[in-house]
Design brief:
There is one protein chain. By secondary structure, the chain is of the alpha+beta class. The chain contains twelve helices and eleven strands. It has helices at residues 3-19, 23-37, 85-88, 91-94, 114-120, 154-184, 195-212, 226-233, 235-253, 278-293, 318-334, 347-358; strands at residues 42-49, 54-62, 76-78, 102-105, 123-133, 136-146, 216-223, 260-265, 268-274, 301-307, 341-342. Strands 3-2-1-6-5-4 form a six-stranded antiparallel β-sheet, with helices on both faces. α1 runs antiparallel to α2 (23-37), α8 packs antiparallel against α9 (235-253) and α11 (318-334) packs across α12 (347-358).
Length: 371
């Protein structure tokens, strides 16, 4: 492949990564583009997991051998099996010094296991290039050729370094997009889910309830005393109270498999459970109330529970579940109850919620802005 061909290959790789709709598609496009650009038979992209001391394979692309999956569940290798990893991924080299890529052969005698791996998989040579993001080593690009094909050379290694830089730019863009997606469904102060995430989860949960009868529960919480903390101690302490309660909510929610803990806004929080019985959800909510009462700031929490596992009538939309939980929470707050009020077990709550539905203009809230 001449200079023009390689230039087209670089452009094609960048475009393919930009067009990918998911991180998985992006790394696959990167591996495929690099393999084609280098006339390779096989390519892989791996990430260096520092906390585990391992190189984890994200994708295997091209002519795979037995045991090589396109997207392996957990194909990873300890760094000590590849001594050169600690050299080429050293931050000093990542900052711009030292060799950027190199070639290894099945007949070579370099330390480590790459040569043995090439022989075991009937490959002749490979080129390895580090992938660097924001000046920090992220992982590696690996491209191999089968036995009988021309060996990679120094020019190929230099080109591989260029390809690795293009891959790094694409991965950086993906990471920024993933962060943006994450923030779109996350409350920035507490790190919990936000209202948008709750709406989506409830819609999915109620669809599952209609299909399978799965119990769907919603706990709505109103943090008591936040305004007093803000007025007397300042908003920094108010934020601290919100963060502390968010942690307590997350801790209690973890008792329920698959539960979603969220901040709806201001001093309002919620917990969405799918699967656990209504009794389990109520027990967890009682623990939540007890833990909130022990916080050094605030005045505890008022909690209302609505669950399809209780006699609340048909729940055709998340709006009704919210209305029931909201009415229960309103009653708990008015009574300054140290325990949750549960719709259905307190029949007055169901009547209150349904009456509010009939007289929409008299609703206490418009239920988080949902239409």
């Amino acid at each position: 492949m001449g200079v023009d061909g390689r230039l087209r290959a670089v452009v094609g790789l960048a475009q393919a990564m930009a067009a990918a709709s998911t991180p998985r598609d992006s790394v696959r496009a990167a591996a495929r583009g690099a393999r084609v650009a280098l006339d390779g038979s096989f390519a892989a992209i791996s990430a260096w997991e520092r906390e585990r001391g391992r190189l984890r394979v994200l994708v295997n692309e091209g002519e795979r051998r037995a045991g090589e999956e396109e997207f392996p569940e957990d194909e990873s290798y300890p760094v000590h099996d590849f001594p050169e990893i600690t050299e080429f991924l050293h931050e000093r080299w990542a900052g711009g010094g030292g060799p950027h890529a190199w070639v290894e052969s099945a007949v070579g005698d370099r330390p480590g296991r790459r040569g043995a791996a090439l022989r075991r998989r009937a490959r002749g040579t490979c080129v390895v290039a580090p992938v660097v993001l924001s000046g920090r080593a992220w992982g590696e690009l690996y491209v191999a050729r089968d036995e009988g094909l021309p060996d990679f050379d120094a020019d190929d290694a230099e080109f591989a370094a260029v390809l690795a830089a293009v891959v790094a730019a694409g991965l950086a863009q993906n990471e920024r997009l993933e962060e943006a997606r994450r923030l779109a469904f996350t409350d920035p102060l507490t790190g919990l889910a936000n209202r948008r995430a709750v709406d989506m989860r409830l819609d999915e949960a109620l669809e599952e309830h209609r299909r399978t009868g799965a119990v769907v529960s919603l706990v709505v919480c109103d943090l008591n005393g936040l305004k007093k903390v803000n007025d007397t101690l300042g908003h920094a302490m108010g934020d601290r109270l919100l963060e502390r309660f968010g942690s307590v909510l997350s801790l209690c929610g973890a008792i329920l498999p698959g539960a979603l803990a969220a901040r709806l806004g201001g001093d309002e929080f919620c917990l969405v459970g799918v699967g656990p019985s209504a009794d389990e959800v109520v027990r967890v909510t009682e623990e939540l109330c007890a833990r909130a009462a022990e916080l050094e700031l605030g005045e505890g929490v008022a909690c209302g529970v609505a669950s399809t596992g209780d006699p609340i009538g048909p729940v055709k939309s998340s709006r009704r579940l919210f209305r029931l939980a909201d009415a229960a929470q309103y009653k708990a707050k008015a009574a300054r109850s140290p325990k949750p009020v549960v719709a259905g077990r307190d029949t007055a709550v169901v009547r209150l919620a349904d009456a509010a539905a009939e007289a929409a203009s008299g609703e206490r809230r418009r239920f988080r802005g949902r239409p």
